[in-house]
Specification:
Largest sheet: 2 strands, antiparallel
Shape: elongated
Distance between the termini: 62 Å
Number of helices: 9
Strand content: under 5%
Structural class: mainly alpha
Length: about 300
């Protein structure tokens, strides 16, 4: 990355800044973020093991681990503002890490829609996970390639090329997340107002389960699933805001105003990702595999007609 790193700078108030960031990363703020991410990530590991939801390890746990590495790198930058490696590590990890977290939201919604009935959806529950998780993986690869190029390039052209590739990955992710939000919003609207897309019959996918939630005509969504759905909407909104911020940030270049403004990063990246991680701790998707989530459900014998 093309930044003059021969000496530290000072802002208009005489405060020390890093030539890489355009500011000095706040030590106390990053220590707080590090502590909270460690607590949340460790909790996710325990919750995944306890609930045997192993898919949470390469998604939520992986994302939290990346955030921890990024926070450590930013703390090092506070004490060593001329350390280029610390800057590069936090740049790549904090841009890429939330990507598997988004994948967890896709999988969670696919499972929620399985319980609530696929007749309200334009896409089958399994396809939600497959299509959008694949798109998320592609976005991760693009961002990783761009981050690696930006980190290893010693020229302005190479650094900018890497930045543009990362920007392409973020934009691709933003588009897929937008489509997901539209489909999820339509599904929840149709389920809440009981406006199925397909005829009101028990779908084959749901009938393979032992239970089907009482999603008969006019029935309310059970509270545990309603809590999961509301939390999922908030989590998606947080990561959507974060994706918009990162798009604007990278579009402005390494010396742009947005990327060199610390409070914007704290609010629109750190807080958004931490809020998502914490909500997933509190309203954990592992509930979907617990018997009590079936409160208000009816057992499927051999075949049920609605």
């Amino acid at each position: 990355m093309s930044v003059n790193a021969t000496l530290s700078d000072h802002d208009a108030y005489g405060r020390l800044t890093s030539p890489f960031y355009g500011y000095l990363p706040a030590g106390g703020v990053n220590e707080l973020f590090l502590s909270l991410f460690v607590i949340s990530t460790a909790s996710h590991l325990a919750q995944a093991v306890r609930s045997r939801n192993w898919w949470l390890l390469p998604t939520v746990f992986l994302a939290g681990s990346g955030e921890i590495i990024g926070c450590i790198a930013r703390m090092l930058s506070h004490y060593r503002p001329l350390d280029r490696n610390a800057y590069l590590i936090q740049t790549v990890t904090l841009i890429v890490s939330p990507t598997p977290l988004i994948g967890a939201l896709f999988i969670t919604f696919g499972r929620i829609s399985t319980h609530l009935g696929r007749r309200y959806s334009r896409v089958s529950p399994r396809l939600y996970s497959r299509i959008f998780f694949t798109a998320d993986f592609i976005a991760l690869l693009i961002q990783s390639v761009g981050g690696g190029l930006a980190a290893t390039s010693g020229t302005v052209e190479g650094s900018n090329r890497g930045s543009n590739i990362m920007l392409g990955g973020i934009v691709f992710q933003l588009v897929s997340l937008s489509v997901f939000c539209i489909l999820m919003g339509e599904y929840l609207f149709r389920r809440t107002h009981d406006k199925p897309i397909t005829p009101s019959v028990v779908d084959a996918e749901a009938s393979t389960d032992k239970f089907m939630l009482s999603s008969r005509e006019g029935s309310p969504i059970p509270k545990p699933l309603m809590h999961l759905a509301v939390a999922l909407c908030v989590e998606t909104a947080c990561l959507y805001i974060r994706a918009i911020y990162r798009t604007v940030e990278l579009a402005g270049g390494w010396n742009g105003q947005v990327i060199r403004t610390q409070y914007l990063f704290i609010i629109f990246d750190g807080v958004m990702v931490l809020t998502t991680m914490a909500l997933l701790n509190i309203v954990h998707p592992g509930r979907l595999s617990q018997p009590e989530i079936m409160s208000g459900a009816v057992a499927l014998e051999s075949k049920v007609s609605v």
